[in-house]
Amino acid sequence: MVEISGNPSVDVEIGESPSELVRFDNVGLRYGIGPEILRDLDFSIHSHSFQFLTGPSGAGKTTLLKLILQTLKPTRGRVTLFGQSIAGISKAEMARLRRRVGIVFQDFRLLDHLTTYENVALPLVVQGREESSYRAEVIELLRWVGLGDRMHMPPVILSGGEKQRAAIARALIVQPALLLADEPTGNVDPSLARRLLRLFIELNHTGTAVVLATHDLQLMDLVDARRMVLAEGHLHIYD
Length: 239
Prior knowledge:
By secondary structure, the chain is α/β, with parallel strands linked by helices. The protein has 2 domains: about 20-100 and about 175-239, 3-Layer(aba) Sandwich (Rossmann fold); about 105-175, no CATH class. It is built from 7 helices and 10 strands. The protein has helices spanning about 60-70, 90-100, 115-125, 130-145, 160-170, 190-205, 215-220, and strands at about 20-30, 35-45, 50-55, 75-80, 85, 100-105, 180, 210-215, 225-230, 235-239. The strands form 2 sheets. Strands 6-7-8-3-9-10 form a 6-stranded mixed β-sheet, sandwiched between helices. Strands 2-1-4-5 form a 4-stranded antiparallel β-sheet, with no helix packed on it. Strand 1 and strand 2 (about 35-45) form a beta hairpin. Helix 3 (about 115-125) packs across helix 4. The longest helix is centred in the last third of the chain and has 16 residues, at about 190-205.
């Protein structure tokens, strides 16, 4: 159970043998001939799970998220995504696997020349879908994240919290099995951070596994969830 103190609990039903979405076996990363900056990474991420990724600034949280997404390749070890080893995988197959992962960036990465609706719909446009096939689901999702009355506005009109919710909606529109969130509460006040955390927990309740990278210990203390702690190149896991 994932629970926020002072709020109703959110139960996440996990089967007796949840499927393994990500697996790292003895993974290491170095740049050039320098020392390894991440080493001996051994962990799994299962379906329906919720975990924090934390550690001091510069510990490598964003780097680890890139390794999970495979926009950065390890220098040793084995990475498995959705039951498939990425060793020797084709670009087309890698792109197919990545479509099952949503990513939320700290700096939003919204396009100012598009409306909020168009930003959220963009991944579906890239997939080649016709607007008639997705319009209703984009509108429904925007309402779910509290932006139903802001969908026709450009990002420059939105507050920081609204931009972050738009970025979350954009990541969710592809219905990912796994969501990676890189410091999504880093640029908002504590009250809004709690609201965003509630949004991630509600998302997890619908079945999406969540990895939320943060250095905010107070935020993590609100939730009874797994912690993955990066320190000096090693990953320590506390269930």
